[in-house]
Structures are given as structure tokens and as C-alpha cells.
Design goal:
This protein has 98 residues and is an all-alpha fold. The chain has three helices and no strands. α1 packs across α2, α1 packs across α3 and α2 crosses α3.
């Protein structure tokens, strides 16, 4: 029996169940939302959204979540040092860039 790519409940449920077993530290609701988002993106780009594709793409996103790996640290943003030189003065013609 072929599973239609237009049936998110069937296709997404298969991928979600597999990922919930693998990612036990991530809430099931987060995994389900991730899989459904990947399904919508796949359809938007014209890709065949089967369970294997959804599982592969969602797995990559879930592995990138802060705190998933034991050594991962929460993302707090990148602090950029201000430039040492003075900022450029306004040109006087309304443009902010020189």
C-alpha cells in the first residue's frame, strides 16, 4: 500500500514515532511540530515528502537543538566588539552609509 504524500497524519506519524524513540530527551510535542514543519517545507519546495525524508531532515534539526548533546551549551548569542575607529560621519544627503 502506497502512502500518499498529501496525508500528513500518516506520513508525519511514522517519522514522529521513530524520532520519539531516538530522541528521548526532547518532548514529543517538539518532535511532532518539527516533523510537521519539515513536511510543509518539503511540500513547498516540491519534494516528495515521504516518511524517510521527513525523518532524515527532522533528525538533523533535532540534533541541532541546544542542549541535545551532552557537551552542547545553550546559545546565548555572539558578542561583537565595536570597531576601534570612529564611525563614519553622515554624508548630509540623507544616506546613512558612506
Amino acid at each position: 500500500m502506497a502512502i500518499s504524500v498529501w496525508e500528513p497524519s500518516i506520513v508525519c506519524d511514522i517519522a514522529t514515532r521513530r524520532l520519539i524513540e531516538r530522541f528521548d530527551r526532547i518532548p514529543a510535542e517538539t518532535i511532532e511540530r518539527c516533523v510537521r514543519n519539515v513536511w510543509v517545507c518539503a511540500l513547498h519546495t516540491g519534494a516528495r515528502a515521504d516518511a524517510r525524508l521527513l525523518e532524515t531532515l527532522a533528525q538533523g534539526l533535532l540534533e541541532a537543538l541546544p542542549g541535545y548533546a551532552e557537551t552542547a551549551e545553550p546559545l546565548t548569542g555572539v558578542l561583537i566588539e565595536p570597531p576601534a575607529e570612529e564611525p563614519a560621519r553622515p554624508r548630509g544627503d540623507g544616506w546613512a552609509f558612506a
